[in-house]
Amino acid sequence: xxxxxxxxxxxxxxxxxxxxxxxxxxxxxxxxxxxxxxxxxxxxxxxxxxxxxxxxxxxxxxxxxxxxxxxxxxxxxxxxxxxxxxxxxxxxxxxxxxxxxxxxxxxxxxxxxxxxxxxxxxxxxxxxxxxxxxxxxxxxxxxxxxxxxxxxxxxxxxxxxxxxxxxxxxxxxxxxxxxxxxxxxxxxxxxxxxxxxxxxxxxxxxxxxxxxxxxxxxxxxxxxxxxx
Length: 228
Fold this sequence. Notes:
By secondary structure, this protein is an alpha+beta fold. It has one domain. The chain has 9 helices and 4 strands. Strand 3 (69-71) and strand 4 (77-80) form a beta hairpin.
């Protein structure tokens, strides 16, 4: 029984961490966001809502500077203030920002948002258990190996989710009459938009390569017989 104690403790830790993370994320988003009401973006959002047979899609601006989109575990869609400011400055078009919203809608529709938080908690729990076990077998480097294994697993799962959300967005943008061209042109811009003081953009660490994402969308266009 004692040998299973680390795993049991890790599972309890994971459940507690999940609940706390969900509460903290919701509280942070509530406190630092407002609903998007841009006159150029609202018609595009309405087109996507119509394509999904929804009465409305609510998008919020999250008041932080990094350029990013976010699908919250509760299903809400957010664009960061930094991303919106790039749009207002003309660096990003309305259609390109709409493609971000479509991508985040994909994460919600496909269950990625909620699963990612569960995965995050579960991975932390598994990391704790592995560190305890490997620490006994390989003192000093056991915890490091556990952390490395979880990072590789997380990156692989994240990239898979991104491809799926890209495909969902491509289908939605096509059905809404917006097309996928803006989705592809934005991919070319993202590295520059997310670059911070010469560091490797965090966006690139968890997302597939730009060329691979564009190729995947072009393959879908060929399959569907559509041209952006």
